[in-house]
Write a structure and sequence with these properties.
Blueprint: E1 3-4, H1 5-12, H2 16-25, E2 35-36, H3 38-48, E3 74-75, E4 79-84, H4 90-101, E5 116-121, E6 124-129, H5 134-142, E7 150-156, H6 163-175, E8 179-184, H7 193-201, E9 216-218, H8 227-241, E10 244-245, E11 252-261, E12 265-274, E13 277-278, E14 282-285, E15 288-296, E16 302-303, E17 305-306, E18 311-317, E19 326-329, H9 332-353, H10 359-367, E20 373-380, H11 383-394, E21 402-410, H12 415-423, E22 427-431, H13 437-446, E23 450-453, H14 456-467
Parallel strand pairs: 4-6, 4-7, 7-8, 8-9, 20-21, 20-22, 22-23
Antiparallel strand pairs: 1-2, 3-10, 5-6, 11-12, 11-19, 12-18, 13-17, 14-15, 14-19, 15-16, 15-18
Helix pairs in contact: 1-2, 5-6, 10-14, 11-14, 12-13
Bound molecules: guanosine-5'-diphosphate.
Length: 475
Amino acid sequence: ESISVQEYAKLLGIEATDVIKKLIGLGVMATLNNEIDAETAQILGAEYGVETKIKEPEKPEELEDIEDKPEELIERPPVVTVMGHVDHGKTSLLDAIREENVTATEAGGITQHIGAYQAQINGRKITFLDTPGHEAFTAMRARGAQATDIAILVVAADDGVMPQTVEAINHAKAAGVPVIVAINKIDKPDSNPDRVKQELTEHGLVSEDWGGETICVPVSAIRKEGLDTLLEMVLLVAEMQEIKANPDRPARGIVIEAELDKGRGPVATMLVLKGTLKVGQPLVAGSIFGKVRAMMDYKGRRIKSAGPSVPVEVLGLSDVPNAGDVFQVMDEKKARAVAGEIQTVKREEELRRSGKISLDELFNSMQAGEIKELNIVIKGDVQGSVEALGQSLERLSTDEVKVNIIHSGVGGISETDVMLATASNGIIIGFNVRPDNNARKAAEKEEIDIHVYRVIYEALDDVKAAMTGLLDPEF
Ligand code: GDP
């Protein structure tokens, strides 16, 4: 919490100039409207002989974690996410590993798609998240949950490094997750692994055989070649990462996916990160109370307990949590109370959030002085028009409102774009492109305004009209 110099002076019933003088005396150059942070306010308070209480930021009660002692930690299987450009073989690779290293080890086992599975190599396990791509990965991170220990970057040897390859590299980098490169489709006659390695160096990934530190494994998902080596490399990298957890404590982990099943009620796939989850235990997942009624592993077998890195399908939740929500086992009374509390805080936040900007409300918000910047994400079908639209929109900036293009790119409107707009309280403009299904759903949930145009000047007209309060109300 902060307070302006003016407000501070008023609060204490002193002259603002006096406060400014004091601040300058403290080495802080301030004007009337400058904000005073909590720390400075405390020092000022001491100067004036008043006690300064700092309001705790109103934060939803986090699902408190328990500290584990180092000696309680034991190795757990690494959790892996597969990323890469579209059509480079992410799904094929996940399927191939599942077929080779899951069902093969147990005859007759039918793997269930629950959003994650475990593969085995040399008697050791690796947990794979079954939703490939950096979008899901980043969506979870945006919720504060990071489950991935290692990323496998799939690059097709016949296609090389492509835009989403670069995005994936950047997302993994931002998360500090080590990357192993699977150079896929080496069965293709026009495959060129060296070119892939060359292109990767331009993005900071230098292959080991070229003197760098990035492990690159040539594979063919279709022919199931190189898979064992790839998995061995995952274990090797895992060893250097010290991937450990205490299995002997109340379980904590994240929700991988969740849905409402007609027959079974709310069903969630959860990944245990610490502790052991047992049937019968009460828990909070996000803001949802639950009591584990039954658990199934990725082979559809009923199990009674699940330790670190084990993905399980859980029945017995009172509602459907969100993918990426953290869950924590606690005693029932506390779990109910915490879930209720988090829900209340969330509702309040939602109310506050209705300040989300839409073009319809732009003018009113401008008039009320609520917004001073219009943040826009632009997606379009060709680079030229995306740039032209972006520049023209930015030129619409006035003294009241500055138009910011916070992200622009070629391609359809994705959920990742919606998340970005959500984080920046912005709107999305599509030029000759549409939102995909997930983006549409996310936009609805997050109340993000998406507008699609086929003609540049119509987009400009709308934004201009909105800024001057002349937007057609039925828009
Ligand atoms: P994703 O979009 O990254 O999940 O890619 P997919 O797994 O859907 O694969 C895209 C296409 O590439 C499909 O037609 C696959 O059959 C093909 N493909 C995937 N792996 C290989 C491979 O190792 N060799 C060849 N020749 N084709 C592959």
